[in-house]
Each structure stands twice: as structure tokens, then as C-alpha cells.
């Protein structure tokens, strides 16, 4: 029986790259996308995940369950706290795209740099890393790598400027960390270039997030 995964997006940029990962790892899966590109705008404007944003996301997760989802993939690191609040009210498991990435990073490294283009993504990612470290009884050090101006460059139609600012930010913290975590899934396309530039392991969320979906689907098949 073909499994269904519903991916919930707060913006447009990650849908096509993530589809390629699904085609590689879960080629027989039915993938359905729910995209509300106003959500990330509202989070950025408010500087936090508001109750209204949380309600909209809960509605989308419940809609995903009604669409027949076996697993829901939340693709936005900025709204992870909304996932935590929604899980008790949704009948289908919700995977955070960045949760497995965070587990892998804290299990292997003590000093981790977090690169993001928005404070609303940087802060939740750093909090996620701390929680994952606490879960395994490990103490870690985090370095703040906010690429100021990169988000504005991207939405302003200047992707080269966006990439340059991220690259400079990663290079600026590389000497003080053992590894670098990319807080936004849309930055995954820079993973190889940043590894080469910094000489450090670089962690991105899309591949590990879909692997977590795959593992969960396999466990559901065994339990049924």
C-alpha cells in the first residue's frame, strides 16, 4: 500500500528541493504539499510564532490528517514550537525537518555554530540543539551565526548576495567551532560549498529530515 506524506511549508523555496530528496529516498511515497507562504512573513513581522500562526499550522496539520497522511513533515525550523503544541491534537505523527539533524550534530560535536538568515529561525534552532544535548546528558557550546542582510537580499531578488553573506558568516565562526548547522532547509544547497570553505562538517536538515520520515514509515509498517 502506497504511503502518504504531507509536507507543510511556510514559504515557497524548499518545496522543489525537498521533492528531489523524496524522489531519492521515498520514490514510492505519495507526497502532498500544503504551502502558506504568508506564515513566515507573519513570523518575521512579529518576531515570534504568534498564537494566530500556531492556530493556522494546527489547522494545516489536521487537514493533512484528513488527506490521509501517514506522516506529516513540518519543513520550517522557525515554527518548531508550534509543532510541539500541536502534536497532542493531531492523530498523525509530525516530524520536524530539523530534529534528526540536531540529534546528529550534538551527538558528534561539542562546539557548534548555527548559521541562519533570520533571528526567528536562529533562536529556535539553538534551543532545539540545547534540548537534544540535554536529552543525552551532554553539554555543548553554541556560536551565533546570524547572516545579517541575507534574508533581505534573497527576497529582494539578490540570491548571489544572500549566498555571499551566508558564506562570510560561516567562515567568520568556523575557527571557534567543531561543526556548522544550517538553520534553514533552504540553505542545504550551500552545504558542500560551506564544507569546502570552512573545513568543518556542515549539517543541513532536508536529507536527514526525510530519512527520519522514512524510518517512521517503516516502523509504522512493522507495527501494523
Kindly describe this structure:
This protein is of the alpha/beta class. The strands form 2 sheets. A 4-stranded parallel beta sheet has the order 2-1-3-4, with helices on both faces. Strands 6-5-7-8 form a 4-stranded parallel beta sheet, with helices on both faces. The mean pLDDT is 94. The protein starts with a strand and ends with a helix. It has helices at 15-25, 38-46, 51-66, 80-86, 99-108, 119-135, 150-155, 159-174, 191-198, 205-223; strands at residues 4-9, 30-35, 71-74, 94-96, 111-116, 141-146, 179-182, 202-203. Helix 1 (15-25) packs across helix 10 (205-223) and helix 8 packs parallel to helix 9 (191-198).
The main sheet comes to: 4 strands, parallel
End-to-end Cα distance:
12 Å
CATH class of the largest domain: Alpha Beta
Low-confidence residue ranges = none
Spatial strand arrangement across the major sheet: 2-1-3-4
Number of strands: 8
Order of helices and strands: EHEHHEHEHEHEHHEHEH
Global mean pLDDT = 94
Instruction: Give the number of domains.
Output: 2
Query: In the CATH scheme, what's the topology name of the largest domain?
Result: Rossmann fold
**What CATH architecture of the largest domain do you see?**
3-Layer(aba) Sandwich
Radius of gyration: 17 Å
Helix content: 40-55%
Number of helices: 10
Tell the overall outline: globular
Q: Tell me what portion of residues adopts beta-strand conformation.
A: 15-25%
Structural class: alpha/beta
Organism: Paenibacillus arenilitoris
InterPro entries: Asp/Glu/hydantoin_racemase, Iso_Racemase_Enz_sf
GO molecular function, one term: amino-acid racemase activity
Family: Belongs to the HyuE racemase family.
